[in-house]
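Q: I'm building a small set of examples for a reading group on sequence design. Run inverse folding on the following structure and report the sequence directly after it, with nothing in between.
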């Protein structure tokens, strides 16, 4: 999956004393466009030396490479680099650069949303010790936003429930039931509610599988769950959200499903195909 970069390691601790070095990696984003060199699936970010002087904020480190966010709202020019849709991370290599890009996008989105205090409107300043934006007027503290959501694999004997989103034109990718956790509910209750809302089914035997950071939704933390349909297996589709939902047999999936990709959804479908669930 996207976060599986071993033996390399993401050190996400905020290093307040870190200064951009010429060889540090520089991340510059204009909305969802990332300044990078992307050729034949290979993704490269500019170094601080290549991007030039400016205001940099420390992000994280992957092994010995420090990543800095270039805080600039204007388009920048660096020879050999161009702005690409952040979506290129999905198939890009090396894997640690793809993971760095999507994680940097998560943090860049959070910094962009927290320039001003959400409570009194004054301009925030970065805390000196930890990754936190602090209001110098009212003292309000803003920490990076992480939003839990669930990915749900509903099984019924030898069949798995697959869905397809309605609001993503051109998408041929099958998905699992998914949705954000809402105020006041547990992750297990999110599973029950989302399955009922999207496909009208009751579920039982809810088991946690694995989690995955999902920075591309600017704060997502995906929690994967398995469960079984409880009683009636007739699907009632929520057409506002889904264009399709169907029970697909393990054998049919084995013959048609190819690439588990970098997402938790793909890994869970692959685990089902292998008979591990
Ligand atoms: Zn304030």
């Amino acid at each position: 999956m996207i976060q599986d970069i071993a033996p390399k390691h993401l050190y996400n601790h905020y290093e307040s004393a870190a200064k951009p070095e010429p060889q540090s990696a520089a991340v510059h984003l204009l909305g969802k466009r990332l300044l990078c060199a992307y050729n034949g699936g290979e993704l490269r970010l500019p170094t601080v030396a290549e991007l030039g002087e400016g205001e940099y904020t420390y992000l994280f480190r992957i092994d010995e490479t420090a990543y800095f966010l270039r805080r600039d709202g204007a388009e920048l020019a660096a020879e050999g680099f161009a702005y690409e849709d952040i979506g290129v991370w999905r198939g890009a290599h090396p894997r640690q650069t793809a993971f760095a890009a999507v994680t940097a996008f998560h943090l860049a989105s959070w910094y962009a949303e927290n320039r001003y205090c959400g409570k009194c409107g004054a301009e925030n300043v970065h805390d000196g010790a930890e990754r936190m934006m602090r209001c110098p007027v009212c003292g309000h503290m803003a920490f990076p936003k992480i939003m839990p959501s669930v990915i749900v694999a509903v099984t019924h004997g030898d069949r798995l429930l697959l869905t397809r989103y309605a609001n993503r034109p051109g998408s041929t990718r099958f998905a699992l039931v998914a949705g954000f956790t809402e105020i006041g509910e547990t992750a297990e209750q999110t599973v029950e509610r989302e399955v009922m809302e999207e496909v009208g089914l009751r579920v039982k035997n809810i088991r946690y599988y694995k989690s995955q950071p999902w920075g591309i939704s600017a704060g997502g933390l995906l929690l994967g769950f398995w469960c079984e349909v409880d009683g009636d297996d007739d699907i009632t589709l929520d057409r506002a959200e889904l264009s399709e939902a169907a029970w697909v047999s393990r054998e049919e999936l084995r013959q048609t499903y190819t690439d588990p990709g970098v997402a938790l959804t793909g890994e869970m479908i692959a685990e089902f195909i292998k008979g591990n669930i």
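The chain has three domains: 10-113, 115-144, 147-273.
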